[in-house]
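G.,

No rush on this.
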Amino acid sequence: MPSDTPQPAIVLVRPQMGENIGAAARAMWNFGLDRMRIVAPRDGWPNPKAVAMSSGAGRLLDEAQLCADLPEALADCTYVFATTARQRGLTKPVYSPEAAMKLAAEKIAAGEKVAVLFGPERAGLENDDIAKANAIISVPVNPLYASLNLGQCVLLNSYEWMRQSADIVHETTDLGRGDWATGIEVEKLVEHYEERLDEAGFFYPPEKEESMKTNLRNLWSRMRMTRADVQMMHGVMRQMVRWKDRSSK
């Protein structure tokens, strides 16, 4: 059974190749979507090529709703988006995938049932299909090559759906087994380097000593370090001092 997670229905209208249906299922499941509706597939249904291409998302194909025509696929829907890369001469609001999925999330949260239409691979949705939609999704692509594979188009919109409906961590740092260095640990490292550099005569001439130390501290602050980094930098300086002492004997 499809999950209980509120989400739009992905409607493949007259898809031609089983491989592309499987790729669409895989793209959907990558981003937590599992409600597929298939309208009049050219090569019949079920399709073993779709299963082979789905790569673990076969459940979506098993549970897909097979529809004879588009009105059947949209019978329970209250708001419908149609994806197209071409101007169709129809007066409808046109959204980017990001804006469309934001609107879809709002409507679904309000209890509506939303569908997103994807056309056949050769020429996309026909005007009669688009006329049944409330709005258009247009992907900003290279105008000299606007053709998107069916699976790619489903993937792009599914990704935007997840961005609007889930808590996305946009940046993170994998610390492995370590922890960030604390202020006191960094301070001790700075002091270690300042002492050794001072002994080596680095801070010269004397009137520039304070500004040189400030610049050095600023460098350390730009290098956010883990405890392991701090320990390694202490070790680097200790080894350099030992080498200098040995070479001077």
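When you get to it, here's the other one too:
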Amino acid sequence: MGKKLVNTGRNLRKNSTKVERHLWRYLRRNQLEGFKFRRQQPIGRYIADFVNFKRKIVIEVDGGQHAIGNTKDRKRDKWLREEGFEVLRFWDNDVLKNIEGVLEVIRDKLLLSPHPNPLPQGERE
């Protein structure tokens, strides 16, 4: 991971949007079903708003600038999926006005996502 990307992530954490700070209140300190999230985390050459590495789930919070079929977002999402991540995107408005609904979607993905390293067939419960 490049030093420039790490510094960019650090700056984004210091200058989070109001919406990112709102969602972070619910994700930080393993509050959501005990899962750890990182914010403004470099992954490859991209920076994810929020990521849970255990379940390989990336959460993106999008403002109006993402409304028009954003080619950069599609390219980035494709790359993340190829790396095994599931990308969840939420509009700013949903995070602010329907946080319980947003958290329910995230919770469902966390609890329903298969474990990245399942036990071999004969060793499962």
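Residues 99-112 form the longest helix (14 residues). Residues 16 and 40 are 9 Å apart (CA to CA).

Enjoy the weekend,
O.
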